[in-house]
Design a protein that fits this description.
Blueprint: E1 2-6, H1 10-21, E2 25-29, E3 46-47, H2 60-72, E4 81-82, H3 88-100, H4 104-132, E5 143-147, H5 150-164, E6 171-174, H6 175-181, E7 194-198, E8 202-203, H7 206-219, E9 223-225, E10 230-236, E11 239-244, E12 249-252, E13 254-257, H8 263-268, E14 276-287, E15 298-301, E16 306-311, E17 314-322, H9 333-346, H10 348-352, E18 360-369, E19 375-378, E20 384-388, H11 394-409
Parallel strand pairs: 1-2, 1-13, 2-9, 4-17, 5-15, 13-20
Antiparallel strand pairs: 3-8, 5-7, 6-7, 10-11, 11-12, 14-17, 14-18, 15-16, 16-17, 19-20
Helix pairs in contact: 1-7, 1-11, 4-11
Bound molecules: flavin-adenine dinucleotide (FAD).
Length: about 425
């Protein structure tokens, strides 16, 4: 059996690895010159195994209004959310679906489905680590979700409690316990009121992971074709034709679309609708050398919507959501400055010691699904499979999603209920 995969981000490379393990002949098509140059490059590196909450929370409408208002008042690059008005027409159909799924019941329901996949992924990642002995700055520090507002903490704690009913390990910390657990926050600005601690959460650099997985699966026989764009998918009888940008055709028994935010465009060529929209986010990586007391945990700061992850010898700071379509490339100086200011909110002394020339900024597009769940499985077009739409959880759920899909394609029974992530929903 021959399978083509479009995309070499975390979803594509892990899928290639598992299909190859099943003895399947795999070719990966990647438009860039190396793997993981899309969203899998510089994400926060946070594997949210405990409570991977979707963005479809009841307050999502207000988030979009805020995003629009930030852009209209010219504060787009200086805020957590932005949505330039010219991008809105392209987001309308997706946005209505997103809002329709942003209610408490769906949020909690999808949180648990995300958790099942994230938990499964943590087992799959542990097995990969053991078999392949990879080195990608992996660590198991647990995470702290920190708050500066008691009402927001109380409301969030109710969500965490709900997930605890499904097995999530969590601990509520008051201010004193928080500062004892994470003393690097001692000089944080504002009034930290407490946190929720998730011991199951872990960390790693997804780009390093992808690169090593590519080396391993290449030496096991997977073919990677870089600088090769898939332009069109044509389903023919029992097979699939992939037309490349250079007009060459490749025939396979099946194709997996793992093209991140570009999945929608390539799927549309085969008549498949995928409810995914781009949400641009940014990160900066700052060397921590010389910092006497760097954080020991992954920290998610709910007041400023940013994550801080001690990843190897850098602090990776990530956040922001720009609903700007796919045209906004590059990183403005204002945006890098904003990301640097976020460091000062929690670690003022360290922030003042940062040499701007040592900051490594990055921007990428999350493939945001309209209901907060990924799309995994066969589409309504025979032999065309999706593995996409993992939103802000692609690293958290990548290896597990790839394993269940590879099992399915190989005719084996996936180890978790894959119907929860049905590729044909929301069409
Ligand atoms: C700022 C930020 C922070 C994040 N933090 C986290 C986090 O802490 N934890 C977490 O779990 N997730 C996080 N995410 C989300 C996570 O990074 C993504 O969900 C994940 O990387 C998506 O992986 P992917 O393989 O689907 O897409 P990508 O990594 O984007 O890969 C898709 C690949 O397909 C290729 N491609 C596209 N079209 C074609 C074509 N036609 N032909 C050939 N190749 C094509 C692209 O070049 C790309 O290499 C974050 C995202 C951002 C932006």
């Amino acid at each position: 059996m021959k399978v083509a995969i479009i995309g070499s981000g975390i979803l594509g490379v892990t899928c290639a690895y598992f299909l190859n393990k099943h003895g399947i002949d795999v070719t990966v098509f990647e438009k860039e010159c190396e793997p993981a140059l899309g969203a899998s490059y510089g994400n926060a590196g946070y594997l949210q195994a405990g409570v991977p909450d979707p963005w479809n929370a009841p307050g999502a409408f207000m988030m979009l209004v805020k995003a629009l208002s930030n852009s209209l008042t010219g504060k787009g690059d200086q805020s957590a959310f932005s949505a330039p008005i010219q991008a809105l027409p392209g987001l309308m159909a997706w946005g209505l679906k997103f809002l329709r799924h942003s209610n408490q019941q769906t949020f909690l329901n999808h949180l648990i489905k995300n958790r099942n996949l994230a938990q499964y992924t943590s087992h799959v990642m542990a097995a990969i680590d053991e078999t392949e002995q990879l080195s990608y700055c992996q660590s198991k520090p647990g995470s702290l979700i920190i708050f500066r507002d008691q009402a927001a903490l109380d409301s969030y704690a109710r969500t965490a409690d709900y997930a605890a009913g499904y097995g999530a390990q969590m601990q509520l910390l008051d201010r004193e316990a928080l500062l004892q657990t994470e003393s690097s926050l001692n000089s944080a600005t504002g009034n930290l009121v407490g946190a929720v601690y998730y011991p199951e959460d872990y960390a790693g650099n997804s780009r390093l992971f992808c690169n090593q997985m590519v080396s391993i699966s290449r030496s096991n026989g997977v073919c990677y074709r870089f600088e090769t764009t898939a332009d069109r998918i044509i389903a023919t009888n029992n097979r699939v034709k992939i037309r490349l940008k250079n007009n060459a055709d490749v025939i396979a028994d099946a194709v997996v679309i793992a093209a991140g935010v570009h999945s929608r465009k390539i799927a549309a060529t085969a008549g498949i609708a995928v409810a995914v929209a781009p949400a641009k986010g940014y990160s900066i990586s700052v060397p921590t050398q010389g910092w006497a007391n760097p954080p020991k945990h992954i920290i998610a700061d709910m007041a400023i919507h940013a994550g801080f992850n001690p990843l190897g010898d850098v602090l990776r700071v990530a956040g922001t959501a720009e609903f700007c379509g796919l045209n906004k490339t590059g990183i403005s100086a204002a945006r890098t400055q904003y990301m640097t200011q976020l460091v000062a909110e929690n670690f003022p002394a360290f922030a003042s010691s940062i040499n701007p020339e040592h900051i490594d900024p990055w921007g990428g597009f999350r493939p945001l699904s309209a209901d907060g769940l990924p799309f995994i499985g066969e589409s309504h077009v025979r032999n065309v499979y999706l593995n996409t739409g993992h939103s802000g959880l692609g690293w958290t759920q990548g290896a597990g999603s790839a394993k269940v899909l590879a099992d399915l394609i190989a005719g084996m029974r996936p180890e978790i209920k894959i119907g929860d992530y049905d590729a044909q929903r929301l069409v």
